């Protein structure tokens, strides 16, 4: 029992020590990781000096740390999955894919280049084998973003630079550890085969890790849905995912556990936001930040404590070799950044990366917890010769601390020298406009507050004068700034609008107004719209107006299934989702119009706001048109869907009111629980997507066609057996010119346009009209395209059934022939309607 108490004392003491370091790092403007490493080394020296006999808490604390079993297995299996998962979860997947080319180059190619550069360079100065030197290269190839990202955030470095460094570190950990594992197996002779076999093993481990992590992440996204609004259960499941993906890949699939953890976290970060309940998502991010902070701190402290013991026998020869490792590693990194990356940009596979960014990425290649953990794993492997163990431990430790204490402490200075912490002219102009708007508003609010609290007039005047002075200075800065072109302002405004649009979708999703499936669809489309705006400005935005609500391949596939095989359910589901998408987009576009008039007009100017409004109105018109077409075709379903929206809003208001009553002590916790239980039951009913019935009553549709009106019921039934119903989507081509005519079509509802060659305007046919008869009468090919103007319910009569029908009904045959003849030879008294085959 005493031993357990002492170990608890050691761990608790380390956590207490860690809690004091972030404020110290902020106070002295030192990267937290650098301070952590320094404290760990100092603590290791104190342990070696003062640990020993003693019964006071101080000696017990030091003795517990000296006896603590800090093995690489504990670090790799307990702390590393948490560290990797937290880092990957915080990555913006869309931004990651925007710069996927440079990131993969730095994360995979740079790892191999560094491994071989360091390995061959060190092999020239030591008698150790090449594999041992390459193993050292793989260990030091893994970068640590913790200190670098902290500096970036403090100085306000560009977002893209942060994404490049985060993405590189996230993926190169996986590549470096996979390569390290292969080289360690080769060194200990547990792996057979040459370089080709090793390369195949690497690809297998990497690909297997990606697949395992992806599958685990998707399974958790499915499992988490029944747990909605259960924050503790949802967050616990993500913690389990980090460990399960690692263990399953590493010990059962035979792939890279590190890659699996990263892949599963990226799936949760991209897909999970719409699967995990909105109220839980923010709490989950905070929990993972805390877990990541603990994991990173404990790995650094526990490994840094061992440094004095590992470096005890190091001499000047080892110092020289450490400098060789430093030179080789950074030379390899420079070759990739300044040699290979421009080739990638030149080939059009990546956006150009500026030289200032490359310089910061070169100098910011710090090493940290992962490298120290891998070095510790080598020292614990009894198959590795003692000389190699000592060599790796000293080289890695020395290299890590050189990067931390030299590069880490001077990176802030480098960013300032390169002026990467300064705003661009466009950003500075935006800052001044936003600051002027905010300062003007705050000045008025300060005056109101002073009046409310009856502050003396002199005090109020002094405070208002300060804001007046700030406004004058901002106005002066605005005169000196580089003038923004009208096109720059429009592009800035469009980027703001697209980002705001996605935020509003998530806000409606969190309020229960938008379903998960629709949210995923809208988020993906918003991402593509943002890419189009960044690449082409207003032209990209306009080009995306119609495709934004265009029919997806899934929708067209569902329509084909209904048309060819009479399978209705997929089409009904797609039409239901389209209703909800259009309503959500219309609601958000109206909110964006108000946002543009109220906020953007004051920041970007009235002229730019007017143009932005015009583009929003254009999109809104397209959405309104598409929604009107659906409402006309399915008016009852539109009412049901709108009732569902109102019902969701009502439930949300009810819940807020109940919690207000509880906060005011009007109702007890028991009453609140009972009321919320009832709300949850009603919410489940509302969450079910109402079914849209697209199955057609052919007999009813036949009665809508004037040609068949007034026929006896038995005759309508007979005709109905020969016809089949078909739904045509807006813009869908029903008949193509040059096709063989094998059917004619009756329009039960809707309208089509006939695109006749050499005719200036298309001919419109509506409910009750028919087309396609000419090809059946003349046995010739189609002579025009026919396209649906809206949702059209058609009755299709095949060629064989057409001949059977007209043979039995002379009146019908003569009517169809008369219409066809009139279309071929229009008279002065009748409109010119071309023959439609």
From TrEMBL:
Alphabetical list of SUPFAM superfamilies matching this protein: cAMP-binding domain-like
Pfam families: cNMP_binding (PF00027), Na_H_Exchanger (PF00999)
Ranges for domain Cyclic nucleotide-binding: 707-806
Cross-referenced SMART domains: cNMP
PROSITE patterns: CNMP_BINDING_1, CNMP_BINDING_3
GO cellular component, as recorded: plasma membrane
Cell location: Cell membrane
Alphabetized GO MF terms: potassium:proton antiporter activity; sodium:proton antiporter activity
GO biological process, one term: regulation of intracellular pH
UniProt-listed InterPro entries: Cation/H_exchanger_CPA1, Cation/H_exchanger_TM, cNMP-bd_CS, cNMP-bd_dom, cNMP-bd_dom_sf, RmlC-like_jellyroll
Keywords for the protein's UniProt record, in alphabetical order: Cell membrane, Ion transport, Membrane, Plasmid, Sodium, Sodium transport, Transmembrane, Transmembrane helix, Transport
Presence of the UniProt keyword Acyltransferase in the record: no
Keyword NADP carried by entry: no
Domain of life: Bacteria
Membrane topology term: Multi-pass membrane protein
Annotated transmembrane regions: 6-25, 32-54, 74-91, 103-122, 128-152, 255-272, 293-311, 323-348, 360-379, 391-415
Official protein name in the record: Cation/proton antiporter, Na+/H+ exchanger family
Taxonomic lineage: Bacteria, Pseudomonadati, Pseudomonadota, Alphaproteobacteria, Rhodospirillales
